[in-house]
Amino acid sequence: MTQLFRSLIFVPGNNSRFLEKAKNLEADIVCFDLEDSVPDKEKKQARKLIKTALKSSSDYHSSVFVRTNSPLSGKIPEDLKEIVQKGIGGIVIPKVNNVNDLKKIEKNLQSLEKSRKLKPLQIIPSIESAEGVVNTYHISSHSKRVCAVVFGVFDLLNDLGIEYTKDPDGAKYSRTKIPIDAKAAGVASIDAIWQDLKDIRGLEKDCKTGKSLGFTGKSLIHPDQISITHKIFYPTKSEIQWAEKVCKSYLKSIKNGKGATTVEGKMIDEVHFKQAEEILKIAKN
Predict the structure, then answer these.
(1) Over the stretch 142-182, which tens digit does the pLDDT of each residue have?
(2) Domain locations in the chain?
(3) DSSP helix/strand/coil, 161
(4) pTM of the prediction?
(5) Chain centre distance of CA 26
(6) Where are the alpha helices (DSSP H) in the chain?
(7) Residue 12 φ/ψ, nearest 5 degrees
(8) Domain 7-234 belongs to what topology?
(9) Is the dihedral of CA 135, 140, 141, 143 positive or negative?
(10) CA neighbor of 103 nearest in space, from 146, 160, 159
(11) How far, in Å, CA of 157 to CA of 171, rounded?
(12) What 3-state class would DSSP assign to 283?
């Protein structure tokens, strides 16, 4: 694990005011959106706004990701050309149906990262179709880049021909399967959004249901949803233990005049140390 995945909040990429306000959000991941919240005629301008915002990513409290358009849209190459730069933590890819969708994107990423001298970006595939649900484990375990998967309930219901309700029966199998497949692959799982912004009790209940199914966090659409989500998706015992090991090992390494070290066979550097400190800080509150 490298970070918390309690909350991932989507911010419309075509709204410069929202992009600026997102600097103060306390979500674990702020995700600038190029997909559903951006009309086709505004995609080009949204890419430019996001590209500019990423230059000041250090001003954000959160990890900064960008949601591209879907593989079937044909727009991902242009998305990546504009947004792959220093300051971006990773990308959310909507409507991933199978591993082949990821392979094409990874090839493009590798080329851009090499030419721009960047470290490999993390990927969060979004599962939003019957095919995607069936292939969730293969998608989750496909690459070291994949750090989490997110559940997209609305497009799944549309794919199944089911009308949306707050607790749709047709999505229950998928909502149960996705966190199990993600856990088996060793990655986090982020539950679907809660659409009714006025129903706070409903959101809290939905978070508790998601956590009981094994989700590690929730995707959000409004800042008011963050605090409730964080209250429910408190760091787990294993996350706290991981953070304690990281802090202990890293501080010892620094004391011995070194930098990066290893914990449980994985490389740990200053980024992981800061994330571990944040987890322990949350755990003490």
Answers:
(1) 999 999 999 999 999 999 999 888 888 889 999 999 999 99
(2) 7-234, 239-284
(3) coil
(4) 0.86
(5) 14
(6) 16-21, 43-54, 76-83, 99-116, 130-134, 136-140, 153-160, 172-185, 200-213, 226-232, 237-255, 270-284
(7) -55, 125
(8) TIM Barrel (3.20.20)
(9) positive
(10) 146
(11) 7
(12) helix
